[in-house]
Amino acid sequence: MFLFVIFSINHQTRAQLANEEISPWIMPGSRSKFSNNVTAWVQPGWNPQQHLYILYSQLFIQVNKYFEINPGHMFIKAGDLANVDLRDESTFFHAVILKLPFKKFSIDNRFMIWSRFRSDLSNDHHLYRNRIRLLIPAKFKSGNCRFYLFDEQTYDLNRSRWSRNRLALGASVDVNGYMNVDLSYARQWDVPSGRLNLLFIMVTLNLSAYRSVNLN
Question: pLDDT (tens digit, 9 = 90+) per residue, 129-144?
């Protein structure tokens, strides 16, 4: 079993007239590989600006090199929020990922149903999310790198309309086998909130590599 600890900060930037609001997500977590085909991931999160708390867990079940099952759950706890229509939610992700590997790049397409069950709102919310992603691997002296570009469309099943588009690019770098650094930027167009600029910074420590060094 491999164990990873993930430290990530998700910065959401919203332009409102001349003012710019920054909403950071602080998200430590862990990732464990139970077998060659099954990986589990658990990630708590905290947003100090919006007083939001989450607990996000998911499984990646590799059926073959072309097909992956990706179920997940996220609990969202809302504190004292100002001018935000959000309460406690238990949300479920039902996703499958189709993969097309090529010699110098790969493409994957994730199909997801996002079911949001809200504690004190009259209607639960169900969304369909489709993400297509291009990944290009590269090698450096210090480690391997993967550049990626993706576009994700969200369809609101309750209101029968497309509600969000997210276009992103980023890079994921393996550093000496002990650490992974993932940086990405996303431009989001959303019906309820308008335009957002999102910056994701994630550092992953491979504790199993440190443990093997200590044992030797």
Answer: 999 999 999 987 767 8
